[in-house]
Amino acid sequence: MEAAEKEEISVEDEAVDKNVFRDCNKIAFYRRQKQWLSKKSTYQALLDSVTTDEDSTRFQIINEASKVTLLAEIYGIEGNIFRLKINEETPLKPRFEVPDVLTSKPSTVRLISCSGDTGSLILADGKGGLKCHITANPFKVDLVSEEEVVISINSLGQLYFEHLQILHKQRAAKENEEEASVDTSQENQEDLGLWEEKFGKFVDIKANGPSSIGLDFSLHGFEHLYGIPQHAESHQLKNTGDEDAYRLYNLDVYGYQIFDKMGIYGSVPYLLAHKLGRTIGIFWLNASETLVEINTEPAVEYTLSQMGPVAAKQKVRSRTHVHWMSESGIIDVFLLTGPTPSDVFKQYSHLTDIGEK
């Protein structure tokens, strides 16, 4: 007697219809940032504006194109943590800052200004083991541990900050920019979702225009990244391609697809990176919709003719670039410097879990 044929069942038949949710090519702030970054407009730190106090070091940043001034603040926090905040210096109204996540105001350590040339500033913690090297033009921050660069911020020039505006000012600016290289047609304005964004039946009216932010981090010598839950993906985060970023957005999804970067359930903007001898973390404190791009550059073999002082010490090193983009708010990021996995977990708990204090 022949065995009865079994009916084939595929989980794909019950998988979520991805058209119901936005992916990168349907997200306006992603398209805006990609278009703007293609112009290679850079930011410059105004180091003659530096002020220091017991808690932080502050200085201005200005964009070459928009001339809008931002205010950067760097904090040293107990337990080998650095915090970078970037906000408009004089916003039209207060921009949203995430409440209730940090258990209390972090205990800070005074950062000491060390020697630097006219185009840079070096800040060190009291122990001297960790240093921040701030380069003025173009603006970049290198986090250095025992003379080794661990993290570089804005080394790819992907700092992006949309300032709040009044609608009539935008219209006047549009008339004055008719000769600009960027398309300012009504069709393009709508496609970029500057003042109104549509998805299906939903319409998002932006009374003060777009307000998205973005920043890149280069992790030196790191190839293994984890975190930024929650996705039905492999434990180790994969490199992303065009329009293939990890999406952080709280969704209650039934029948989600596996091995997919769309967001499900929780959204925690916390990333871990590990290599032999060091583990670090990046905590991007932002509650709005966020996209994360990851790209690993393979190790480079240096020849003798190419070797400068730095290359001689680090002949073979890979780098992984992490690009964070959020729909609104301010840039508020904590760099957890480890160096061990246990240290990183303690540092994160110190910030977010009062039970660990």
Automatic annotation (TrEMBL):
Q: Which biological process, per GO, is one annotated for this protein?
A: carbohydrate metabolic process
Any Pfam family: Gal_mutarotas_2
* UniProt name for this protein: Neutral alpha-glucosidase C
The record's annotation in SUPFAM superfamilies points to: Galactose mutarotase-like (SSF74650)
Family matches, as CDD domains: GH31_N
Glycoside hydrolase family 31 N-terminal domain: residues covered: 73-292
Gene3D superfamilies found in the cross-reference section: glycosyl hydrolase (family 31)
Which gene does this sequence derive from? Answer: LOC113219493
Which molecular function terms from Gene Ontology are attached? alpha-1,4-glucosidase activity; carbohydrate binding
PANTHER family annotated for this entry? ALPHA-GLUCOSIDASE, NEUTRAL ALPHA-GLUCOSIDASE C
